[in-house]
Specification:
With 172 residues, this protein is mainly α. Among the domains are: 78 residues; 36 residues, no CATH class. 60% of the residues lie in helices and 0% in strands. The chain is built from 4 helices and no strands. α3 runs antiparallel to α4. This is Clathrin light chain.
Length: 172
């Protein structure tokens, strides 16, 4: 026997004849559904309670409107401050770039002048002279005095000066 009546043909009241196809069952229409909230009490709203709710809503609405205006004012002030700071930053950046460009141009001019001087010194140093000891004497400081603790290089300086003034004859 089927407890739920799903598979037992006797429970449903229909007999299945052997070998014959099953005829569709006719099921009765479901009963009208009852109100699920029937029996529950509904709180009664008095006239004064409704007025109090509306008054609360207007107070809340006033506060929300005031708060919204305050937030908008704060947002406007922040935007103005941002705009001011951006303008100040742009001015500082512009000034920094101008200073930087001026320094770059000045450094470029200085580098060009130094390069010209170096090229001139190099051309003078590589220029053929009759006495090569003259060029050597230009490269060292012959008037420098030695310290007490260091070696005495005065003989070498005297030798270079004498070679400069009386060069050795070169065999050709």
């Amino acid at each position: 026997m089927d407890i739920l009546g799903l598979t037992d043909p006797l429970a449903t009241g229909t007999a299945v004849s052997a070998g014959l196809p099953m005829e569709p069952e006719t099921t009765p229409a479901p009963a009208a559904s009852a109100d699920p909230f029937a029996g529950m009490s509904v709180p009664a709203v008095s006239g004064s309670g409704a007025a109090q709710g509306i008054a609360d809503m207007t107070e809340l609405r006033r506060w929300e409107d005031k708060h919204e205006r305050e937030l908008e004012e704060i947002a406007r002030k922040e935007e103005a401050e941002k705009k001011e700071k951006r303008q100040a930053a742009e001015a500082q950046l512009r000034e920094w770039y101008e200073t930087r460009d001026a320094e770059i141009k000045k450094r470029h001019a200085s580098n060009v002048a130094e390069e010209q001087e170096a090229n001139q010194r190099q051309s003078e140093a590589t220029k053929e002279v009759e006495n090569p000891w003259e060029r050597v004497a230009k490269l060292i400081n012959t008037s420098a005095r030695t310290a007490d603790e260091s070696r005495d290089t005065s003989r070498m300086a005297n030798l270079l000066i004498s070679l400069k003034s009386n060069p050795v004859a070169v065999a050709s």
